[in-house]
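Field: sequence (string)
Field: structure_tokens (string)

Example rows 1 and 2, in order.
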Amino acid sequence: MTTTSRAHSFNAAAAAYAANRPSYPPALFDAVEELAGRPLTGARVADIGAGTGIATALLHERGARVVAVEPGDGMTEQFRRTLPGVPIVRGDGNNLPLADASADFITYAQAWHWTDPARSAPEAMRVLRPGGALALWWNVADRAVDWVADQTTRIQRFFGDFDIVLGAHGTAERTRETGGLDFTDRTVPWTREVSVETHLANLASHSVFLVAGEKATREFLDRERPALMEIFPEGVIREAYVVDLCVATR
């Protein structure tokens, strides 16, 4: 399965993605501002690979003037339902449909790894104003938590493709190697409490489940549900994440 196929697999599951994927903590945006050396309030921000608008909405709430860029039909349709007042244009990070020196921030939430950094890095620098910042981040399941590590092992055994399933630390280093930019890194730990069913739906919205198909996904989730209920008999899970953040300035 190609990277492009994985990337476009989300379009058929856009509503489930919007409903079940985790958001981001306020401390992430504090860190973005600190590392960029400028506030988001009033800034012109291009949110690339915006998907259903999870990060875009938070940037907008922070007071940024945001335009979203998204290549997928299903994601764009869901975005417009969720954020009808925020502009969205079709395109991707390898060829941004944006003018030179037009953005104070370019952000990628869970999306930079779908680009070719040899193309997307120069594009970001073209669109950023002098002193502007490129901010990339990923929610990563925190494997320092025992139950998360155990679940990760079960997923890896079933699908054999962990990095694509839930992300992996070291993204910043891989980004630096391929993008040729001088990044500063920060990690932001956080948690959220959700039902077992929401947690399972979150898992099912990841690309490896989507491309594996409904039968394989159902088989894994049917095995996973009783394992989780043994740990969380009340049916409420505290999901643990670490946001991997990388910021480079122009």
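Row 2 begins here:
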Amino acid sequence: MLRRYRNAGEPLSCEPVAQGLLNRGYRLSTTRGSYFLKHHLDGDREAIARQHRATLRLQALGVPVAPPVENTDGDTVAVIGGRCYALHPWVEGRHRDGAQLTAKGSRRLGGLLGLVHVCLEQVMEPDPAGRAHDSPDPAGTFALIDELLTLARDRTPRSAFDALAEHRLTERRVLLERHAHRRPPPGAEPATGWVHGDFHPLNLLYRGAEPAAIVDWDRLGVQPRAEEAVRAAAIFFVRPTGELELGKVRAYARAYRRAAGADASELAAAVHRVWWERLNDFWILRWSYQRGDRRADPLFAAVSALAVWWTREYEAVYEAFTA
């Protein structure tokens, strides 16, 4: 790998870092310094190169990113044995969730995401294809709930996770029956644009109180912009018991709207669509029971509690994003 990078130095050590859900990463130390070596598991070379071009352009506009290092051929994607790799400068910093952010830090976070959306609009080609954004159909969700309930009840040995899954699935079915009439109607499409696609605490590094680098652009794509803002807040500012820190959400959302040029009605529609999405979403249980992948199991307690709390406190959440 390093033979392809003239100025990277000779290898000294290569240690795996905390494994993400989409890729594998390593801290690579050489005689010239430290790097982040990323193994892209999806292997889509053109998509990876597009992400790299985007981060280079974003850096020129002042967005904190960590663009890849070019190899001796001027490429940023190295294909070895059919696998795609990229070498990035190592960024010293730490992750911070919403509990570690002050009101000022929450405003800075919202302003940063707004800056990302505005700058992506400048550096990316317009997307010529329309995107369907149909909301989940509760009929399909009811069928999924029945399937997951069977799998949760049949798992042996049975654990506290399985008991919680059964409780939340049963509870969610009742909530969906009660709120099925609130499914977002088809028709008016939300404002779409290029978004990071996976903006959450593990993809943002801080140096002190300042964001140092937004990383992992694997899901760069065209999506409703305001929905990314709402989803990010629901990850950054959720407490372990499932409530959102609404004071921080308010500060974050105001800063986002100002930086992105989004009005309250755009955020209002996004809040409703993401709430409905969360009410119908069981990705963690699908991974656990259908795929046998339990890496996301520790997230389930807070994520599932949030859907219930958000439904109960819908008006307060709506106000926090739009006031």
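free_text_note (row 2): The beta strands are 11-16, 23-30, 33-40, 78-80, 83-89, 192-195, 204-207, 210-214, 221-224.
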